[in-house]
Amino acid sequence: xxxxxTPAPEIEASLAKGIHLxxxxxxxxxxxxLLQRNACSLRQLAALVGKDAGLTARVxxxxxSPLFGLRREVSSLEQALSLLGLQPxxxxxxxxxxxxxxxxxxxxxxxxxxxxxxIALLCGLIARRQAEVLGIAPGEAHLAGLFHDCGVPILMxxxxxxxxxxxxxxxxxxxxxxxxxxxxxAVGALLAxxxxxxxxxxxxxxxxxxxxxxxxxxxPLLAVLLAxxxxxxxxxxxxEAGWEKSEPAVLAALGVSPLTxxxxxxxxxxxxxxxxxx
Length: 278
Prior knowledge:
Elements: H1 9-16, H2 26-36, H3 42-49, H4 53-63, H5 77-84, H6 86-102, H7 107-129, H8 131-134, H9 138-147, H10 151-158, H11 173-180, H12 184-194, H13 199-206, H14 213-218, H15 220-236, H16 243-254, H17 261-276
């Protein structure tokens, strides 16, 4: 399977409808330019991010979360990025830039970001617990969780009726997409590629409503994303159609056996609740 070629027909249809994709923020473009020249040091990275007060604040908030394991307070952006390392730092910066770029206000968008942050947190926790099996960095998993439904607020801006009651209950996005003749997963994947996110993240975004054994085996990040979504639903007591059918394949891709399934779920929910209170 190769998603690197031309856009899928539904993406082209979306663009034809006049959907505006937020451009890659300038700071990310400048970082990418440095990376292409193999000239991006942590000091340069801190200097670029430090130009944007809002982005800097978001980076500090994520850096200080238990997910990234920094055991002491950091006093400067360069110090924070140095403790994390270049690649994890880049992941955090791109994730922090998303909300600022997509923007939006109102109860529905507040509910959207709350859900995205929850799933991002759970993705990171799962990746950390199953690191030996998956080999996925918690930061990369966190990024996939944060971006996985990023097509939704973009379509909300383009179509006023799209997901208008999102603050009351998470809707059937398949029905919402059909009503406007587009696909939020395809739009989100296109944004992710425009922002030069890791290819595994782009593909997980594109296919996060699909469950196929071969796809899960090839793209374990997708299994992380599906499991995180289910765990959040379980935590809040939300109904979820189809999980019983897809659960065996998802857990197998994560390296969780039927015998250890309950232990995995209990541990992830406990860690999620603990992190929510931080």
